[in-house]
Amino acid sequence: MNQENTGAAAQLDARARDFSVLFSSTPRGARLARLLAAEQLCSWGLPWEVAAQIVAELAANAATHGRLPGRSFRLALHVDGRTLRIEVTDTRGDRRPVRREPGAEDEGGRGLLLVAALADRWGVADDRFPRKIVWAELDLAAPEPGPPCSGGTGGQ
Asked: Cα separation of 122 and 45, whole Å?
């Protein structure tokens, strides 16, 4: 393979590590975001369980608190070296997420606590008005052989 072809192959691999999709700002859209994120990460051979939980929380927040009628939210996954970055962009830049300690009787309010516990880093960034990006990063370990992405685990 010549130098030019080697560069093209490396560039193709780099593009294969970016994923971005718009979803409806509904519970169904949030659920679909989680499922597609898990499938995409699995197809890349990356651990998907923790990332899928983070996507579920961020997408649910976008569909609940970042919702404007007729507007979608965007899920983006980026892998750079050994870091997976999850970004959820919604159209409510005026509503910044706040991590809080819910009371024992509260039915909600634990999503960002879960994201903070699972992610290595997370935060909020401004995007072009009126959008905001809530992001989380996971440090990826070297891949280990594991169970398949879909289907049963066999025997049990």
From this structure: 23
**Is 44 within 8 Å of 36 (Cβ atoms)?**
no
Q: Which of 48, 34, 16 is nearest to 149 (CA)?
A: 48
Q: 93 with 131: CB under 8 angstroms?
A: yes
CA neighbor of 73 nearest in space, from 120, 114, 127: 127
H/E stretch holding 67 reads none
* Separation CA 117–CA 37 (nearest Å): 19
Q: Could you give the strand order of the β-sheet that contains 132-139, starting from the edge strand earlier in sequence?
A: 18-24, 72-80, 83-90, 132-139, 121-126
Cα 50 from Cα 118, distance rounded (Å):
7
Q: Give the integer Cα–Cα distance in Å for 140 and 79.
A: 9
Going residue by residue through the chain, which has 156 residues, state the pLDDT in tens, using 9 for 90 and above. 444 444 443 443 444 489 999 999 999 999 999 999 999 999 999 999 999 999 999 999 999 887 777 789 999 999 998 999 999 999 887 777 776 676 667 566 677 889 999 999 999 998 888 889 999 999 997 655 556 666 444 443
Tell me how far apart the alpha carbons of residues 136 and 124 are, in angstroms, rounded to a whole number: 9
